[in-house]
C-alpha cells in the first residue's frame, strides 16, 4: 500500500491477553464519515500522505486517473498524468498547489496545480552521487526534503521557474526514516543496528539538527544486522508532555499498533481484537528516571462499524455489512488514522467520553482524565449533575474533590488571562511578539457553567434533603474561596433562595452576620425583597449597602432596576428623603412592573405627599406625571383620584 507497514510485534511482560472483551462501554469509535476510495488491486495503487491526511488512488501509473481524497476535503481532486513507470511515492505540497511524484530511486518529478500555470512536469535529481531516494516529505507549501540512504537534502521549490533550489543537505547513513508533520520533525535511523535515531527539525526555510538518541534493544543482537525497523517506532505529538521517558505496561504479547487520539496513547492488540488507552499526563509509578503507566480503562473493542452497501437504490436497501475490526489489512498512521486497503476506507479514530464515566468509577481520577480531553465540558457537567442526584449521589468529600479539581483549572486560566492583560496594558506586548492570549479550553468550567447546568437545576429538582443541598452550594463557594476566585452574586442568591424556601432564616442570619455570604448590591436588593416574609432582612440589607459605601440615591436606583418599588420607597422613607424624591421615577417603575395594585399604592402615596406639602393632591406640570394620571383614570376611574382636603 504505502511504505507504512502493518501493526508490528512487541513483547511485553505479564503473559496472556485475557480474551476478547465485550463491546459494552466501547470508548473508541471509527469516524462516522470515512474517506471511501478504490480498493488496492493490480491496476490501482493506493498511497497515503501523512502531512495532508490524503489518500491517493493511482490507476495505471496515473494514465487512467488519479483520485485524491482527504477527511477534511469536501471535493476530491481528480486528474491524469503520463504513465512514466511505477509510482513509488506521491504527495501534494501543503495547500495542494504542487504535486511531487517519485518513480525512480534517483529523482522526483513535480507538477504545478496553480491556476494559469502550464502543467508541465519538471524533475529534480538527488545531489549525492550513488545515493538512492528512500522517500520525500513536504514541510511547507514550497519546501521539500529528500531522504536518501546517504543523507537528507532540503529544497525550496520555485514553481514559476519550474525548478528547485538546494537550501541545505546533510550526509548521514540512513536505514529508514519517519516524519511527524505536526512537529515538522524527520527521524532518521542510523548505524548498522538501526537503533541510533537522528532527528531534524524544519521551520521557515531552516533545517536544524537535533540531539540524536539511542533506543535500547530488548536483547543483545546475535548478528550485526538491522535490529530496529520503522514498524517498531511511532511518532506523534502529545501536548504539554515534557522530556520524560514513559513506559506503558501492556501485560500481553502479540501484534500491536499505536494511535494518538486526544492526547491519549491508544494501543491496538490484534490477537484479542481489543484496544487500551494510556494517559501519560496521569500519575504513574516513577522510579527516578522513567514513569511506568498502566492502562487507564479496561480493554475494549472499537465500537462495531457497519459498511453501507454501495450500488443502485434498489440494492442499497440491503443491510449494511459489518466491518472486520482489527483486520490484518488495517494499516495505522499517526496520529489517529486507520486505513483498510482491502475495503477501501480511511477513518480517523475517535475517543468517546460518555462510556468512560461508567468505567472509571473513582470521581477524582475521572475528573483528572476528563479535564485533559478536548471535548470535555458537557461530559464533566453531566458527571457533576449525576453525583448530586440519586442513585449516584456522592459523599460531600467526593463532591469537594471534584469542585477543587474544576476550580484548580478555572484559577489557572484566570491567572493566565490576568497576566496577559497586565502585559498588554503595560504596553509590553509589542516587544514580545510571541505573547498570545490564553486559550480558553473546555476544561475551564466557570461559575456560570456550574450555575446554569448543575447547581440551579439541582436546587429546582428539590430531590435531595435541604441540608445536603445547602451543603453542596456552600462546598462550591468554599472551593472558589480556597482558590481565591471572586464568587459571583448569583451563587449567593441561590443559597439565600434555598434557605428561604425551607424557612431557614436563622441560618441565613448567621451566614450574613459572619460574612459567609459576601456583600454585594444585588444581594442587598434580594434581602430587601424578603422583608415581607422575614422583617429583619430589611435592616440586614441596609447594613450591607452601607458597608458597600453605596450612596442613598444609588441604592434607590438599584432597587428600582430590580422592580423593588415598595422596598425603594420604604428605604427612602427610612432615611427621611421621601419629600424630595421624583414621583415620576417611582411611577415609571411601578407601571413597568405591570402590577395595577402596586401602581395604585405608589400613585396614592404621592397624592398624599402632594396634599401634605402643597394642600392639593394633584401633580404640578413640572413633575411631568400627566401620562400616569391618565393611566390611573383608565384603570381605576376618575372618581378614584384623591380630592383636595379643605379645613
Automatic annotation (TrEMBL):
Domain of life: Eukaryota
Domain Regulator of MON1-CCZ1 complex N-terminal, chain residue ranges per copy: 46-164
Mic1 domain residues: 373-621
Gene Ontology biological process terms, A to Z: regulation of autophagy
GO CC annotation terms, alphabetical: late endosome membrane; lysosomal membrane; Mon1-Ccz1 complex
Pfam families: RMC1_C, RMC1_N
Protein name: Regulator of MON1-CCZ1
Natural source organism: Aquila chrysaetos chrysaetos
Name of encoding gene: RMC1
Amino acid at each position: 500500500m504505502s511504505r507504512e507497514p502493518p501493526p508490528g510485534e512487541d513483547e511485553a511482560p505479564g503473559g496472556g491477553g485475557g480474551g476478547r472483551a465485550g463491546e459494552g462501554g466501547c470508548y473508541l469509535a471509527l469516524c462516522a464519515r470515512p474517506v471511501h476510495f478504490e480498493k488496492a488491486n493490480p491496476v490501482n495503487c493506493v498511497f497515503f500522505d501523512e502531512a495532508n491526511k490524503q489518500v491517493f488512488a493511482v490507476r495505471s501509473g496515473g494514465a487512467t486517473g488519479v483520485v485524491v481524497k482527504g477527511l477534511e476535503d469536501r471535493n476530491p481532486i481528480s486528474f491524469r498524468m503520463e504513465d512514466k513507470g511505477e509510482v513509488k511515492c506521491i504527495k501534494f505540497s501543503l495547500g495542494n498547489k504542487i504535486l511531487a511524484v517519485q518513480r525512480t530511486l534517483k529523482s522526483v518529478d513535480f507538477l504545478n496545480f496553480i491556476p494559469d500555470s502550464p502543467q508541465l512536469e519538471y524533475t529534480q535529481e538527488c545531489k549525492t552521487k550513488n545515493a538512492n531516494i528512500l522517500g520525500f516529505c513536504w514541510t511547507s507549501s514550497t519546501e521539500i526534503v529528500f531522504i536518501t540512504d546517504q543523507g537528507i537534502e532540503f529544497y525550496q521549490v520555485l514553481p514559476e521557474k519550474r525548478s528547485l533550489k538546494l537550501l541545505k543537505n546533510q550526509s548521514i547513513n540512513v536505514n529508514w526514516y519517519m516524519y511527524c508533520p505536526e512537529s515538522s520533525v524527520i527521524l532518521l535511523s542510523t548505524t548498522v543496528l538501526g537503533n541510533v535515531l537522528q532527528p531534524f527539525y524544519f521551520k521557515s526555510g531552516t533545517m536544524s539538527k537535533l540531539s540524536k538518541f539511542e533506543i535500547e534493544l530488548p536483547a543483545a543482537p546475535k548478528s550485526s544486522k538491522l535490529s530496529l525497523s520503522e514498524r517498531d517506532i511511532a511518532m506523534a505529538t502529545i501536548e504539554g508532555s515534557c522530556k520524560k521517558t514513559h513506559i506503558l505496561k501492556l501485560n500481553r504479547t502479540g501484534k500491536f499498533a499505536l494511535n494518538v487520539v486526544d492526547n491519549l496513547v491508544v494501543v491496538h492488540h490484534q490477537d484479542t481484537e481489543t484496544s487500551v488507552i494510556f494517559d501519560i499526563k496521569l500519575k504513574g509509578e516513577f522510579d527516578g528516571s522513567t514513569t511506568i503507566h498502566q492502562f487507564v480503562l479496561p480493554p475494549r473493542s472499537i465500537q462495531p462499524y457497519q459498511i453501507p452497501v454501495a450500488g443502485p437504490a434498489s440494492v442499497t436497501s440491503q443491510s449494511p455489512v459489518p466491518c472486520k475490526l482489527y483486520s490484518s489489512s488495517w494499516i495505522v498512521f499517526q496520529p489517529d488514522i486507520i486505513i483498510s486497503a482491502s475495503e477501501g476506507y480511511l477513518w480517523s479514530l475517535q475517543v468517546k467520553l460518555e462510556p468512560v464515566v461508567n468505567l472509571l468509577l473513582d470521581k477524582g481520577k475521572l475528573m483528572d482524565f476528563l479535564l485533559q480531553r478536548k471535548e470535555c465540558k458537557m461530559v464533566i457537567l453531566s458527571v457533576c449533575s449525576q453525583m448530586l442526584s440519586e442513585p449516584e449521589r456522592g459523599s460531600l468529600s467526593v463532591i469537594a474533590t471534584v469542585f477543587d479539581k474544576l476550580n484548580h483549572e478555572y484559577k489557572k486560566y484566570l491567572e493566565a488571562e490576568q497576566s496577559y492583560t497586565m502585559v498588554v496594558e503595560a504596553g509590553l506586548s509589542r516587544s514580545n511578539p510571541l505573547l498570545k492570549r490564553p486559550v480558553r479550553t473546555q476544561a475551564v468550567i466557570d461559575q456560570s457553567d456550574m450555575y446554569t447546568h448543575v447547581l440551579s437545576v439541582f436546587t429546582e429538582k428539590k430531590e435531595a434533603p435541604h441540608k445536603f443541598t445547602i451543603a453542596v452550594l456552600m462546598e462550591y463557594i468554599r472551593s472558589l474561596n480556597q482558590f481565591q476566585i471572586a464568587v459571583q452574586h448569583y451563587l449567593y442568591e441561590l443559597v439565600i433562595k434555598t434557605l428561604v424556601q425551607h424557612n431557614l432564616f436563622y441560618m441565613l442570619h448567621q451566614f450574613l452576620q459572619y460574612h459567609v455570604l459576601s456583600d454585594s448590591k444585588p444581594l442587598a436588593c434580594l434581602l430587601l425583597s424578603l422583608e415581607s416574609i422575614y422583617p429583619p432582612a430589611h435592616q440586614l440589607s441596609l447594613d450591607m449597602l452601607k458597608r458597600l459605601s453605596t450612596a442613598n440615591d444609588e441604592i434607590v436606583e438599584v432597587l428600582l432596576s430590580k422592580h423593588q418599588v415598595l422596598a425603594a420607597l420604604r428605604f427612602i422613607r427610612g432615611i427621611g428623603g421621601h419629600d424630595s424624591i421624583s414621583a415620576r421615577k417611582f411611577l415609571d417603575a411601578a407601571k413597568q412592573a405591570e402590577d395595577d395594585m402596586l401602581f395604585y399604592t405608589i400613585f396614592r402615596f404621592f397624592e398624599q405627599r402632594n396634599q401634605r406639602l402643597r394642600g392639593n393632591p394633584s401633580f404640578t406640570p413640572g413633575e411631568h406625571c400627566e401620562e400616569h394620571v391618565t393611566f390611573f383614570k383608565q384603570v381605576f376611574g376618575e372618581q378614584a383620584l384623591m380630592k383636595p382636603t379643605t379645613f
